[in-house]
């Protein structure tokens, strides 16, 4: 399928409520595995449903290649049944009155595909998803994970140009979710379809996507590869939404000793007028030393007190306090620390994210800090 | 310059947007169907109500001299006559007072009896709880005036001619206050609506989160304190809701006061309205119907308001519904006895009395020679009109046939319309249309059946435009019944569609199914069950319905209920009782059958 392009898309449900989606520009390339990531209510599902044609636009345009599929200004709208897409619902939405086989071949029968070809196609997808042994059962007789596979098979059977997935793994337990993630990656490779995947789970997005679109309050916050999103968050929202435990943020404007120290440290490198609003560093970048002497030169440093050590199985979260302000560090090596111990925390310059007063990433700072290291 | 600029601006931008919206609205037939249905319901529900309200304020044919205006002109004469004039007391105020007395009496008794029974069934270790849970609901499945006829069979005295009641026959003349009027009507309505309290209150008790109770217990509260300070306050919404719904139902109750009130001129609003129609006082009938509707609307509005208020503190969706049973200990047998007595009074005695009366020549005489099957299957009887047993009477079979066809067609239509309403309300993109459909189909719920029938009479009795006069036809009964059943049908349809959600249909849309394909392959097959329920439930309630038919049916379109009422009027007691037994049997059998078919507890569905 050609690229799907959303330009300046707006969606409002009226009644004075804020726009569900505002000024959205998104280019989904052929063969891409794109995740729409964001907290609930951020407009990601609405975006997916607009691509599918289940919601119409308030303004803007969506086209697939040269074909305009939705544009209020042009008076154009192509119904969902004519878009040739596939959509897997969060609830699976299997047809309860049809067997698994009839669920799967429903779309092919609609298209009047000859019997032999239809059966071959159904056989192929069922086999790929390992559901052929349930073909004569009804959806209610299957477990959640099996229903999920049927929902996928039903859409794959018609060979859609793009597969849209609306939080398809959120109703599965942890182990099944892991399996299905691998399955989805395999399907993406095997069927070579474009996939647009909606989720609020950052790990799901990180592990699956070739690119991630982070959304908040109806707006696109950042579009990039998983590594971009994690290592170079475009703004504070992205920095704080992605990562667990969350990124440590220090505000330039407060008078707390730690924040002042960080501002001072930055000013020494960027100059006083750099317009720094806040500084962030991820927990794994926050390192701990017994004494100041052990801190490598050039790193930001401060004295702190260990207040808690939380083992998470294979890694540890260390909770620290500086004058009552909490910081989190993570480590994969058993920390030889005790609660109440006085230590030094330090961060390499390249691991520091600098944001301006509006919360946007200060790109100049990245260059300066990289050179300083 | 400015004006030429405006001309040069391409119009298509605005035009295209309108085209876009129109295309979205008409892309699928949903909207067109919604508009057609809105028009249909406006005609079948709104127009009759407006028509009878208009009757109340316009000069009716034949009243020109009294009102001092030409036919069709505006007049306040009917309002004056019903509310202020010297006859106003007989026409309106006394019936209103009687209605209120009966309703509040029935509410008090049914709350006291039903509340205790609900608690015994839901939360105690009384013997036979399961059996009582079903048995005590039976009165609600039977027509209320079954009990009125049974009462008559027992207590009828010499005040009224015809065959005396059993007590009179054995020489114990019951006083008028016991035989007719307020006392028996109140008792019968109370017994009839007790199941309602058991259902509403019982289900609230069962849903009650026992963790709330446990928390109070752990803090040291005794059983009584828990009941008074935790359980009862939380039950209040369910209780109030039962009160208001029983009130609304009493308001429209016709059969019981008709059978038991008439001999002592004890009129309630429903019978007063019936009388006005019978004596062709169309204008006054309009006023009375309007008054009944107004009271009904007020009651339902108060209920809706309270329900909204209650939602603020009601806890829902907790897991702690594994309620413990209170041990009755020494009171176990007395409690069971109490439930048994209520069952005997509300089901056993009335049905037994009716059944016995149909096989006895003389009332109250239990000599073997007095028993006969003549009233069921006799031939060449020495009576004036009913010369055969009821089962050989062609009138019965004609009435049964009418009942099945009229109620059947109406139920099928309303069931289908209900599912369609549900679909359209949930799926149309035009919200005002959905809101209108939802509300208009609910309107008959606010209008007691007898007032609704009067409204139909007012609109359809004479030719209006291209629509010929429908009075006396089967069609008017079918239409009125269908409209009257729409609240239940559309609610069932809407909730079924809500429960189904959009997803299954959208999934079909995504893989390429157009509207008709989705309807035939997805929506209707999935909704089959709720469609069957949506047809069966109204069918059962239609079979035992009286108030609509009593106004709109003529002898040629007699149904079982009006047929038996006619027999009562002609003093064919045994035959009338036999017909009522047949109706009761049909209603009960139908409920049980529907329950089997849908594997649900329909008794609970009947409560709403």
From TrEMBL, chain A:
This is ATP-binding cassette domain-containing protein. Residues 4-242 form the ABC transporter domain. It is a peripheral membrane protein. Pfam families: ABC_tran (PF00005), TOBE_2 (PF08402). GO terms for molecular function: ABC-type transporter activity; ATP binding; ATP hydrolysis activity. It is found in: Cell inner membrane. GO terms for cellular component: ATP-binding cassette (ABC) transporter complex, substrate-binding subunit-containing. The keyword Transmembrane helix does not apply. Belongs to the ABC transporter superfamily. PANTHER family: MALTODEXTRIN IMPORT ATP-BINDING PROTEIN MSMX, OSMOPROTECTIVE COMPOUNDS UPTAKE ATP-BINDING PROTEIN GGTA. The lineage of its organism: Bacteria, Pseudomonadati, Pseudomonadota, Alphaproteobacteria, Hyphomicrobiales. Keywords: ATP-binding, Nucleotide-binding, Transport. Gene3D superfamilies: 2.40.50.100, Nucleic acid-binding proteins (2.40.50.140), P-loop containing nucleotide triphosphate hydrolases (3.40.50.300). Its main location: membrane. The keyword NAD does not apply.
TrEMBL record, chain B:
Its main location: membrane. InterPro entries: MetI-like, MetI-like_sf. SUPFAM superfamilies: MetI-like. It is found in: Cell inner membrane; Cell membrane. Gene3D superfamilies: MetI-like (1.10.3720.10). It comes from the Bacteria. This is ABC transporter permease subunit.
